[in-house]
Amino acid sequence: MNRDTICVHGNKKPIPDKSGAVAVPIYQTATFAHPAVGKSTGYDYTRSGNPTRDALESAVASLEGGADALAFASGMAAVTTLMELFAPNDHIIASDDLYGGTRRLFDAVSVKNGLQFTYVGGADELSDALTEHTRAVFIETPTNPMMNVVDIAQCAAFSRAHGLLLIVDNTFLTPYFQQPIALGADIVLHSGTKYLGGHNDTLAGLLVTKTTELAEKLRFIQKTTGAVLAPFDAFLVLRGIKTLALRVTRQQETAVKVAEWLQSQRKVARVYYPGLPEHPQYELSRRQASGFGGMLSFTVDSRETAERVLEAVQLIQYAESLGGVESLITYPMLQTHADVPEAERLRLGIDDKLLRLSVGIEDADDLIADLAQAFGG
Ligand SMILES: Cc1ncc(COP(=O)(O)O)c(C=O)c1O
Fold first, then answer.
1. CATH architecture of 3-242
2. Hey, whose CA ends up nearest to atom 2 of ligand 1?
3. Out of 103, 116, 217, 352, which residue is the most buried by the measure of CB atoms under 10 Å away?
4. Cβ–ligand 1 contact at 57 (below 6 Å)
5. Which tens digit of pLDDT belongs to each residue from 15-28?
6. Do 3-242 and 245-375 agree at the fold level?
7. Is 13 an annotated catalytic residue?
8. What is the pLDDT of residues 80-117, one digit of tens each?
């Protein structure tokens, strides 16, 4: 089935409801009655499984081309659960440009549990970071917020050769534009809060696995630690996915227009968008993904301009998060990446002149007009 169709229909996993409901019902129940002693309907307790969550999980597994998927209360709940696959002294090689919250989890919580991390700039640096304790490679592509594109197939070949799990955060491009499992990833991660949900109205996280064995391990950890997605939120993300194809296609079209307009602005020093032919990994991006997405970052000429833009935008909102129908602008230095050590932040380019824009589905000219008035001529 084509991805556009899967978005609308999920993978048509049968739900227990016999009413013919077109939308998957919200099974707002904590527990399920047993038909007889030792017998189960297949559902026992919502922490272990719920039909609304199941429908979402099977839709996302189909979209990503994975064997199975698990839905969590947030993207960070998904990463936290994922870290429980590892034991003290295990070592993980991660991209140095990651969502700040993931980096904070690794550096402030996972290290306390005995995990070790080495951060690298890209696939070429993996072998230098390898140790006898390395168990996984964790990447985001494009990276947040610098929009660097990491070669998934190269990371997969390295991971396979050394018996490591390759974990890819696919939040920015979504399975509509990029399918890491087909390129060799073992686990795909999503903040479902972003494009999958798509309406800035719920938090969610997803893990998609290449094999059922991995899913079983994670499901055991998930039901034990408990950070599952509630039925109502599962319904919201399922509803969001129905329009994923339309939204991301439109967001990308507008992002190209906005990126090109920004490039022509006197107060803009640099635009980071993989869909611009000047982007250093433009060709790689075209090779490994079928789209460039709706996220872009740019540096302006001064901190004053950055602050002015953030305070003067009217249609675009100065708010954290991304991927929703409303355009949002973020100051990574003070928001998403505030906890990354300053020297590291500056080395990556996350300084007081960097702004990140999540392009929504508004009219492109209206967005450009809003930015133009915010720059103040
Ligand atoms: C790329 C990426 N991964 C993971 C997360 C964490 O997701 P959540 O905010 O749903 O916990 C975010 C949040 O911004 C993100 O941008």
1. 3-Layer(aba) Sandwich (3.40)
2. 99
3. 103
4. no
5. 888 899 999 999 99
6. no
7. no
8. 999 999 999 999 999 998 999 999 999 999 999 999 99
